[in-house]
Amino acid sequence: MVRGRPNILITGTPGTGKTTMASALAEATQLRHVNIGDLVKEKNLHDGWDEEFDCHVINEDLVCDELEDMMEGGGVIVDYHGCDFFPERWFDRVVVLQTDNSILYDRLSKRGYTGSKLSNNIECEIFQVLLEEAKESYPESIVVAMKSNSIDDITRNVADLVVWVSSWSHRTSQNDNMCD
User: Fold this and answer.
1) In a domain, 2, yes or no
2) Residue 180, pLDDT above cutoff 50
3) What is the pLDDT of residues 137-164, one digit of tens each?
4) Strand partners, 56
5) What residues bind ATP, as annotated (predicted)?
6) d(Cα 145, Cα 31) in Å, to the nearest integer?
């Protein structure tokens, strides 16, 4: 079954602007925004707390079970810093946000990140770990890297994705009409 509206994954290192961009895109496209971190907290989809990284240890199976029906229906923007555990069939576009390290360092420091949590996230960005993870987990044709250093970048990214959503929806409706 073809979805009537696309599903989009917005991923990237913490601090790259995923939630800000996903919220703005959801507002502009009327797609549903699901922040996985919030979902994990609300529905207790975790296996406890990681003291070193000061975060929940998410239970990926529980998260996927929770999202399955929603994703099949389409029209969802998922926002999370990981991407390799989501089923490939769920997404029509995977956006990897990237931020210059000096900007990212400042953003994460302001959030209170210190020690290994801070250095691991900066290293993750330097080595483009999430971009590689996305390219290994999804067809490269649906993976796109976008700069996210400023509000202007986010505005431009949202505008580009609004055009993409519109053209995806238009293509899908044309294909439906051909089958009639």
Assistant:
1) no
2) no
3) 999 999 999 999 999 999 999 999 999 9
4) 49
5) 15, 17-20, 111
6) 21
Q: Which residues are annotated as a binding site for ATP?
A: 15, 17-20, 111
Q: Is the model's pLDDT at 173 over the cut of 70? A: no
Query: Nearest-5° angle of CA 144, CA 119, CA 59?
Result: 65
60 lies in which domain range? 8-165
Annotated binding site: 15, 17-20, 111
Distances (CA, A) of 46 to 41, 49, 58, 133: 8, 8, 4, 22
Question: Per residue in 17-39, pLDDT tens?
Answer: 999 999 999 999 999 999 999 99
The CATH number that applies at residue 138 is: 3.40.50.300
Domains: count for the chain: 1
Site of tokens 């953003």: 107
Say whether 111 sits in a helix, a strand or coil.
coil
Give the separation between CA 51 and CA 59, rounded to whole angstroms.
16
Is residue 14 situated within a structural domain? Answer: yes
pTM of the complete model: 0.93
Residue 132 lies in a domain: yes
Is 174 inside any structural domain? no
Q: What is the DSSP letter of 31?
A: P
